[in-house]
């Protein structure tokens, strides 16, 4: 069996390498020629632990190649994974489906026999059915392409592991032969007793957005509770530990702080809100709107606390530790850390940012901020240090590391992970986001 992967960004590049690791000959199809050049040289155009080693090994062995040609990809593959982007619309909350639709229309005429197109991109419910109709409209004479939906649940920072050993597989199919093909593709993963849910197309689409909506809701829930803690002097960390011991609740995704960001949760809850609105499911619309509002308020709250600590923002020197939306990633899409840095800069603060991996991406988005190459450089003469992305090198910082470097010993822990007592004992003013 030969596999193509259409769209080689974060998801597609990882999936292509994963499919090669499962033993298939893989052709990645990508419209950006610069990415094709990089990937073909065995280089990953973003930071993801372990991915470059995996990808370059399969490029070198010849199992994994990349192209910009739809014709070549159509002729090559028996199974075509659709991994193109579904960003938020430029002027609305809904998903921009132009990449998925464009890819399906472009590949359709080149598909051979009963090739299976497998959607992995995150899409609003009802999209797969429309894409099936588009495949049918644009297919070559005599071809009978099929479509299935196999949503992806990988996390950036753990993408390789999540691809090769996922928590579960979901197959949305319209007929048994598609399920059989997917079972064959994932035979090695299924052999590890990975749970597999086989269902219809709309359920598979909804599983994905529901999973992300649930995770986002869990984070916004604990962040709303963090505001109660701030108002009452209670401690949100102890509270999360206590409720997390209830197996029905669980401790994961109960870390309060500056809220969620990234290329997926924010745009997915907005697209879900939009789609629920279209379908008249008004309670879901309101729920998603509130989850988003709570999340965005956390970024404002950092600004408020910073202003309280500094007195005057204008002219103050602020060190921002972290720019990526989470550690072990250089992704700055909708990054809470960068949003906060940008807001403080606009309010007149002199902001220096340091991120171990994301400085370059951040500089493309916010070129007016100052970027430094180390914690110490970013913190030099700072009036306030903000810990906004929990990279291990920030979590292991001690007050002694920064004494004599900063101008005023003040730190705000936006991720609630630093040792408050150690910083206070070191003579620092220490604030967090709902911890004592
Ligand atoms: N990034 C992640 O961790 C995950 C992403 N997803 C979903 O996967 C999808 C892709 O996300 P990312 O990889 O983050 O986006 P991305 O923007 O990094 O990658 C999309 C890639 O598709 C390419 N592309 C656009 N139109 C194309 C076409 N017609 N033919 C071939 N290539 C084309 C783009 O140039 C880009 O390289 C989205 O729906 C996202 O919600 C799902 C799970 C995890
Ligand atoms: O659809 C997607 O693209 C992916 O979105 C998320 O994965 P990811 O965005 O890589 O990162 P997460 O680990 O979910 O973190 C998202 C954001 O939530 C924040 N977060 C997470 C957990 C928590 O307790 N608190 C919290 O603020 C993180 O800092 C980060 O900004 C999901 O976890 C994946 O299952 C999904 O496949």
From TrEMBL:
One Pfam family it belongs to = UDPG_MGDP_dh
Mention one GO molecular function.
Answer: UDP-glucose 6-dehydrogenase activity
Which residues constitute the catalytic centre?
264 (nucleophile)
Which reactions are catalysed by this chain?
UDP-alpha-D-glucose + 2 NAD(+) + H2O = UDP-alpha-D-glucuronate + 2 NADH + 3 H(+)
The residues that the entry says bind substrate are 153-156, 208, 253-257, 261, 326
Matches recorded under Gene3D superfamilies: Cytochrome c1, transmembrane anchor, C-terminal, NAD(P)-binding Rossmann-like Domain
EC number, as in UniProt: 1.1.1.22
Q: Which family does it belong to?
A: Belongs to the UDP-glucose/GDP-mannose dehydrogenase family.
NCBIfam families recorded: NDP-sugDHase
Q: What does this protein do?
A: Catalyzes the conversion of UDP-glucose into UDP-glucuronate, one of the precursors of teichuronic acid.
Q: Which PANTHER family match?
A: UDP-GLUCOSE 6-DEHYDROGENASE TUAD
Q: What is this protein called?
A: UDP-glucose 6-dehydrogenase
């Amino acid at each position: 069996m030969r596999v193509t992967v259409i769209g080689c960004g974060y998801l597609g590049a990882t999936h292509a390498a994963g499919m090669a690791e499962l033993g298939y000959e893989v052709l990645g199809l990508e419209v950006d020629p610069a990415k094709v050049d990089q990937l073909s040289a065995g280089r990953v155009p973003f930071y993801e632990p372990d991915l470059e080693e995996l990808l370059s090994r399969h490029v070198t062995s010849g199992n994994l190649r990349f192209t910009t040609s739809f014709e070549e990809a159509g002729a090559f593959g028996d199974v075509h994974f659709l991994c193109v982007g579904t960003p938020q619309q430029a002027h609305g909350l809904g998903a921009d489906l132009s990449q998925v639709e464009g890819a399906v229309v472009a590949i359709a005429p080149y598909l051979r026999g009963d090739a299976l197109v497998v959607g992995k991109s995150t899409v609003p419910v009802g999209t797969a059915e429309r894409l099936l109709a588009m495949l049918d409209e644009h297919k070559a004479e005599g071809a009978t392409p099929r479509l299935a939906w196999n949503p992806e649940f990988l996390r950036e920072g753990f993408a390789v592991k999540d691809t090769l050993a996922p928590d579960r597989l979901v197959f949305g199919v319209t007929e048994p032969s598609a399920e059989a093909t997917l079972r064959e593709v994932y035979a090695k993963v299924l052999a590890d007793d990975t749970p597999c849910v086989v269902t219809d197309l709309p359920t598979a689409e909804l599983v994905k957005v529901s999973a992300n909506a649930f995770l986002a809701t869990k984070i916004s829930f604990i962040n709303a509770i963090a505001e109660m803690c701030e108002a009452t002097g209670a401690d949100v960390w102890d509270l999360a530990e206590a409720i997390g011991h209830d197996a029905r609740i669980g401790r994961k995704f109960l870390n309060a702080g500056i809220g969620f960001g990234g290329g997926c949760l924010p745009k997915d809850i907005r697209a879900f809100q939009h789609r629920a609105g279209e379908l008249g499911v008004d309670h879901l619309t309101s729920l998603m709107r509130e989850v988003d509002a709570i999340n965005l308020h956390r970024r404002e709250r950092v600004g408020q606390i910073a202003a309280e600590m500094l007195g005057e923002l204008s002219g103050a020197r602020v060190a921002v530790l972290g720019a990526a939306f989470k550690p072990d990633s250089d992704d700055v899409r909708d990054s809470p850390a960068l949003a906060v840095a940008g807001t403080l800069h606009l309010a007149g603060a002199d902001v220096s940012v340091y991120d171990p991996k994301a400085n370059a991406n951040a500089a493309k988005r916010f070129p007016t901020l100052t970027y430094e190459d180390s914690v110490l450089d970013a913190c030099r003469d700072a009036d306030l240090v903000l810990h906004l992305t929990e990279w291990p090198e920030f979590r292991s910082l001690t007050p002694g590391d920064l004494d004599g470097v900063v101008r005023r010993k003040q730190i705000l822990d936006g991720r609630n992970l630093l040792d408050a007592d150690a910083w206070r004992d070191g003579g620092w003013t220490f604030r967090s986001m709902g911890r004592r």
